Amino acid sequence: MSIWDEALIQFNKAAKLLKLDNSIQNILTNPKRVLQVSIPVRMDDCKIKVFQGFRVQFNDLRGPTKGGIRYHPNVSLDEVKALAFWMTWKNTIADVPFGGGKGGIICNPKKLSDGEIERLSRGYIEAMHRFIGPERDIPAPDVYTNPRVMAWMVDEYHRIKGYNVFEMITGKPLELGGSEGRADATAKGGVYILEEALKKIKIKNPSIAIQGFGNVGMTAAKLLAKNGFKIIAVSDSKIAIYKKEGLSISKVIKHKQTTRSLEGFKGANTLTNEKLLELNVDVLIPAALEGVITKKNVDNIKAKIILELANGPVSADVRAILFKKNQISIPDILANSGGVTVSYFEWVQNKMSYSWSEKEVLEKLKTKMVDAFDNIYNSCKEFDVDLGTAAYIHSIRKMVKVLELRGYVKKGEDVCMM
Ligand code: NAD
Question: Is residue 265 lining ligand 1, measured as CB closer than 6 Å?
């Protein structure tokens, strides 16, 4: 099953429970615009290599489309479409005035020099600039892209337009219109959500394992350790490390930053990434790639709470299996929405040419995350479904209201059990 087929399962389940009209389902499951571009890049050896780039602008009914740009060898149109679809629902749940979009380039950034990545990033904006912009589609970082890449992109847009448009992209460095709190926002938002979930489930001193030690996973580890949580295992693409008594996260971060790997970290046992997922922990945080908890390994997953900080790490049918076993999977479109929420704050600040302090940003973030969690938890109780289905129920209802107000649904027409 493709990732796009997977993405539809959860939507279809919620749509069925809401008795959603077919025509509305069609509007909501077809992307508004799909772009594929070829990007010729002069490599360091002077030869030209052509890369494939994508941008899917899925739904702009609630505002300009918004979502990150991913650099990875496995990027495909199917994947970008699914990610753009998820962004539509994530932005609705986060209650930010954006639709859903996503982009990606098929490349292996680990094998590219900084200069090649810069030329590739500028080439992407060159190819896409007519279709993106602060009122149309606002990109941001995703896997293997970062503020450095966003800085090249905002500069390229400046070069093309002839003036600065900082609000055309988010996740920028502070010096170029970035927001205080953005770097840690996805992980911080996830920690707020986890703390709310722990209040409901009442687990004391939970043990935690984290898969993925990049922007999101490493920051989550740092924040959780700072808040006194015990992290017993973490992993990157090569290896997982494990210590029953709890890892010293500051030492692990130092090692990762010095050697760019978790390999060779002293004072912990090693594991495979697969075994990390199956550890006997209270909380498991997948923070790397999609499709890591599947029907194949779900019976071996022991964590009581799974906080989906990555996009798409747990499929819809697997969330339902976990729910039946009294294990809670907090869906990605809720758990990792802190990033896009602070991206929204960044966009607002750029439009106002004004900046908020980190304290102001984090207060606003916490309010939005706690509200989002409460809304979805309430839908979960109302329909007696897993949190993933509840998240779709809540956001589809909001979207149907927008369709109604925009005139897609005639008043009184029976499209949805509201
Ligand atoms: P990143 O590139 O900074 O880090 C990814 C991490 O995953 C790295 O540590 C890498 O070594 C590890 N990894 C790669 N392949 C792996 C594998 N097969 N098994 C285990 N680990 C592997 O990316 P990121 O920004 O931290 O994003 C991680 C996830 O969070 C992605 O799914 C992304 O879409 C999602 N996300 C990120 C943001 C954000 O603000 N950066 C926001 C929302 C969602």
Answer: no
37-94 confidence digits (pLDDT tens): 999 999 999 999 999 999 999 999 999 999 999 999 999 999 999 999 999 999 999 9
Global pTM reads 0.92
* Residue 417 pLDDT: 45
Q: Do the domains spanning 32-176 and 185-335 agree at the CATH topology level?
A: yes
Q: What is the pLDDT of residue 414?
A: 53
Q: Which two three-digit tokens encode residue 118? A: 């810069």
Decide whether any atom of ligand 1 lies within 6 Å of the 65 Cβ. no
Domain boundaries, the chain: 32-176, 185-335
Q: List, as one string, the DSSP characters of 115-143.
A: HHHHHHHHHHHHHHTTT-BTTTEEEEE-T
Q: In what order do the strands lie in the sheet with 99-106?
A: 33-42, 48-59, 99-106, 65-72, 137-141
pLDDT digits (tens, 9 = 90+) for 244-259: 999 999 999 999 999 9
**Interatomic CA distance for residues 177 and 9, integer angstroms:** 38
Average pLDDT over residues 163-174: 97
CATH class of 185-335: alpha beta
**Domain 32-176, architecture per CATH:** 3-Layer(aba) Sandwich (3.40)
Nearest CA to ligand 1 atom 21: 237
**Atom in ligand 1 nearest the alpha carbon of residue 309:** 30
**H-assigned helices in 18-146:** 22-29, 77-93, 114-128
Quote the mean pLDDT of the chain: 95
Q: What is the mean pLDDT of residues 152-156?
A: 98
Q: What are the residue numbers of the active site?
A: 102
